[in-house]
Design brief:
This protein is α+β, with helices and mostly antiparallel strands. The protein has helices at 36-44, 92-97, 99-103, 110-116, 131-144, 161-175, 188-194, 212-216, 222-225, 326-332, and strands spanning 2-10, 13-21, 25-29, 51-56, 59-63, 68-69, 77-80, 149-153, 181-185, 197-202, 205-211, 231-241, 246-251, 254-259, 268-274, 278-281, 292-303, 308-315, 318-325, 339-344, 354-356. The longest helix has 15 residues, at 161-175. It holds the Pfam family TOBE.
Length: 357
């Protein structure tokens, strides 16, 4: 558990945030300049706040009231930057072993090497690694320092889409580790796939915080998250791989079919469905090419100044978001308690929107 409460002023910008990061991945999300990196630097000890309190696993790292300010090298914090920052003259194995200098103990690299798929890279030097491979090594080195909390400051921002797709499954594995992860990103798709908790920052303030599924499916949070990227995450399980190239998934509201997903039958997944890719119908439609039709109940409708409306649909304990026009919402009589059917196009869900559950 990581507890953060800091205030700091930088010229014309002020930071004033408070949140708790439990086990798993807590994503700090917001536009550039919202204060994400400043928060991470305060936790790492690279920034001394004007006031506040930072506690990691019950250990006070900073407390302005009592004068506690643990030095950077004693905070037991792992930090993964946008660039890997590996030692170019050392091999991968030697870069990983360097973590032992931080702990003062001989490190057992085997579990981390296996988790991050680094076995074939150990004899290489950083110059012979791809961007994704180098970031995996950087993550491994940070983990081998046995941190109480892992800080990841936009670790995929410098990678192209192919390299991101390569490294995302490894970051998902970290989510199940006991170490809390503070993950900075301005990519909502990335956050939706990885985060268990989301803290949304805007102009140095926390405007929304909570469990990832709740925040992403909350129409009131969409303005801060970004309307164009709005979408909810639902849980699913692989039920079968069909002969025509589709994979059948079971959800709380029924089956859906998506283009072939790599994974074994029974594997748990989380699927992000963009609000703009959901069509609503009051009755179950017939004669459509769309395969995925899920029954649900409208739980909230939010309208703004423009012509659009965001509709939250309850699916047996989980939620979808649909982005429709206000005219459509009025014509369908959409309000809380109304039964609807959500229609999802199979090809609208990209592979990057499907992650391990």
């Amino acid at each position: 558990m990581l507890e953060v409460r800091v205030t700091h002023r930088f010229g014309g910008f002020s930071l004033d945030v408070a949140f708790t990061a439990p086990a798993g991945v807590t994503a700090l999300f917001g536009r550039s300049g919202s204060g994400k990196t400043s928060v991470v630097e305060a936790v790492a000890g690279l920034l001394r706040p004007d006031a506040g309190r930072i506690v990691s696993g019950g250990r006070v790292l900073y407390d302005s009231a009592s004068g506690v300010d643990v030095p950077v090298h004693r905070r037991v914090v792992g930090y993964v930057f946008q660039d890997a920052r590996l030692f170019p003259h050392l091999t991968v194995a030697e870069n990983l072993a360097y973590a032992g200098r931080v702990t003062g103990r001989r490190v057992d690299m085997a579990p981390v090497v296996a988790m991050l798929g680094l076995g074939a890279l150990l004899a290489r030097r950083p110059g012979a690694l791809s961007g994704g491979e180098a970031q995996r090594v950087a993550i491994g080195r940070a983990l081998l320092a046995e941190p109480a909390v892992l800080l990841m400051d936009e670790p995929l921002a410098a990678l192209d889409e192919a390299r991101k797709a390569e490294i995302l499954p490894y970051v998902e594995r970290l989510r199940d580790a006991a170490v809390p992860i503070l993950y900075v990103s301005h990519s909502l798709a990335e956050v939706a796939r990885l985060a268990t908790t989301i803290v949304v920052l805007e102009a140095g303030r926390v405007v929304r915080a909570g469990a990832a599924a709740e925040v992403l499916a909350d129409p009131a949070a969409v303005p801060a998250l970004g309307l164009r990227e709005a979408g909810a995450v639902i849980g699913a399980r692989i039920a079968g791989h069909e002969a025509d190239g589709l994979t059948r998934l079971e959800t709380v509201a029924g089956p859906i079919w998506l283009p072939r997903i790599a994974g074994e039958v029974g594997a748990a997944l989380r699927v992000r469905i963009a609000a703009q890719d959901v069509i609503l119908s009051r009755g179950r439609p017939e004669g459509l090419s769309a395969l995925n039709i899920l029954p649900g109940v409208v739980s909230a409708v939010r309208t703004g100044e423009g012509p659009g409306a965001l509709v939250q649909i309850a699916l047996g304990g989980e939620f979808l978001l649909a982005r429709v026009t206000r005219r459509s919402a009025t014509a369908l009589g959409l309000e809380a308690g109304v039964e609807v059917h959500a229609i999802l196009k199979s090809v609208a869900v990209a592979q990057v929107d499907i992650g391990a559950g």
